């Protein structure tokens, strides 16, 4: 049926469903090419990159600072071996271009790098191929508004920053494949970027400038040079303009239409591209939240933290962090993130900006800034206490410190999701793409707001103190769905990741929304039916930790996402949701009508929902569209890319899957059985007890009646705040005895660490002084100090910075020594990883010194 209603049937199917993803959103394939320009450009000497003038604009300075942080990864280590990349150069180029477009480049092209492209004062790098990234300038707000003053003079630097970020991710991906790659941006480059952009066929020359045939001069350019051989593009015919007539307005060959671009341009910037103003607003979320009963929980109770610490079994623990980093694409996309973490908070300006006293104007300006930088949807709310974690991952208590939350949604990419099964080798990259972009935007905004005199902190996936789901509800960005701990938006469905900026700048807040999702999800089981491990509930909603929700089996969900043998993580529930659509003017008419009725005609739900659910299956939504699969499936094993040993998940629809709640064994772990915040050891989940507790869960109706009658809060809502004395006593009884006598950990040790980037063998040296023990660690990045070193008898403890896919992170090591060997655990935010080591004899010490 899906193949029958093809791309020409715009009533039922997207017009671009047959358009290959790597073609991009603009019809470059229709433009004339001139290969003779290659020889002409090769004969012109490289033109120096124009010097960027100093700027007084605060946002421009912040964007330049972030770009410089990204450029610390301009050159980095190459994987220890070559990946099993395709022999076909065209397939490689589809993969590389697809990644650029997936990361929101407007255009991407590839060329051979002529010798004349390198600056004469730069050493010629043996990288013969160039990948050029073109980023479109963000939309400007209306003149006269406060946000226009913020952005006037900063827009180009923000585009350059985004281009630099994309280039850093692309270069990191190529290096993960085993090939060298160097980033070039307007802030630091060894090549003539304009020349490469012309040669790659994404711009043409206009005098001394370059222009995009579709975007004019409203662009920024970055590039990656590499030794990775790729199929190349040809230059554009420079004097032939692009077709901007009726066909462009309508949409050429499934490319974005001129009318969709015009529709977006007509909307005020602070209101986003989606008509959220049409959605009904309420004083409270549509699902019950008993505010006084919601427990604050520690980060140690997060599902991924529990898996990494061993709570969900040894298999999930053994995978740990590598479950997120076993795909080269995801590892590359993650590269810029650690450069931002140290700057999520900072000093606040001593004086408050005089024009920031109006909460409504502040909210409008901050939303406009977020949309300018690439956010898809923004909402603002006050932060309830229960939205703050109770403790950080190290057990340190968290006291609420800001009043407001700016909640931002980043679309994970509809077309890429169309090409995927939801749990194949691109799944983790879809999440990380949104997390990385969100961290960048929230980081820049936070630094800017601090400059206005107000505290602000970005709350990201790597370092956040808030639970984002309740904030998204209160900020009016969606309703809780059958997927469980996931909010659905009426226009992007579940297909997003969020980032939050907390702050004290006064802002007008948004209200929660109601678009009838509770009725829809009550009458749709598609996400539950298609879950690979039956983790989504087939039954009714329950009260869990004070929230009304369809509670998923988090143990099953997280364990599968980490151990998925035929993919990297899982987002199948998001792909399968009937609301996973794009209601633009380029989309099918039936989707636009359905979305409008769903938002504006709640009284029609009993008629529309069964029809929508039935035809979503009948029309084949949820099946993979091969035209949208741009990536090469690859798995990282010991840091080297290989063909996936067990293949890739190729699921479509499982229409016959049993969906009876009475047959489903689902486990719940409420606050009372979650691990305490300072638990360093496994706190095993008792699955049998988790299944048994289901019968004790309150229904929303019972909870309302209990609260109305003044009943007590259920005991299961009370979280542990510290290690119990019984567990402490048991830990003391089972702890290995520390042998008395001299510290056996003194000296030099060669450690063996298994990491997502392969095996690492750093050398540590522990010495004793009058003030205690100190030490150093030496690896391929150099020598640096250890922290908090302790050596007593046969026990050794220390903290060290270790290189990971998220950059250098500080981890805690504990080890026991037996003779000339040691074994121990390395504690990471994702759990504990085992490591070993051997004492270095004097002769080997000298050899190690020479090697270092």
Précis, in short:
By secondary structure, the chain is α+β, with helices and mostly antiparallel strands.
Task: Draw up the topology in text.
Elements: H1 36-42, H2 58-70, H3 89-102, E1 107-112, E2 129-136, H4 146-151, H5 155-176, E3 181-184, H6 193-199, E4 204-206, E5 209-211, E6 219-226, H7 246-250, H8 258-266, E7 280-281, H9 303-309, H10 314-319, H11 328-334, H12 337-340, H13 359-372, E8 377-382, E9 404-411, H14 414-419, H15 427-451, E10 456-459, H16 468-474, E11 479-481, E12 484-488, E13 496-503, E14 513-514, H17 517-522, H18 526-530, E15 542-544, E16 547-549, H19 554-563, H20 572-576, H21 589-600, H22 605-618, E17 635-637, E18 640-642, H23 687-692, H24 700-708, H25 725-734, E19 747-755, E20 758-760, E21 763-769, E22 772-779, E23 782-785, E24 787-792, E25 795-804, E26 807-818, E27 821-828, E28 831-839, H26 842-851
Antiparallel strand pairs: 1-2, 2-6, 3-6, 4-5, 7-14, 8-9, 9-13, 10-13, 11-12, 15-16, 17-18, 19-20, 19-21, 19-28, 21-22, 22-23, 24-25, 25-26, 26-27, 27-28
Helix pairs in contact: 2-5, 2-15, 5-11, 11-15
What can you tell me about this protein's structure?
By secondary structure, the protein is of the alpha+beta class. 29% of the residues lie in helices and 19% in strands. The protein contains 26 helices and 28 strands. The strands form 8 sheets. Strands 19, 20, 21, 22, 23, 24, 25, 26, 27 and 28 form a 10-stranded antiparallel β-sheet that branches. β21 (763-769) and β22 form a beta hairpin.
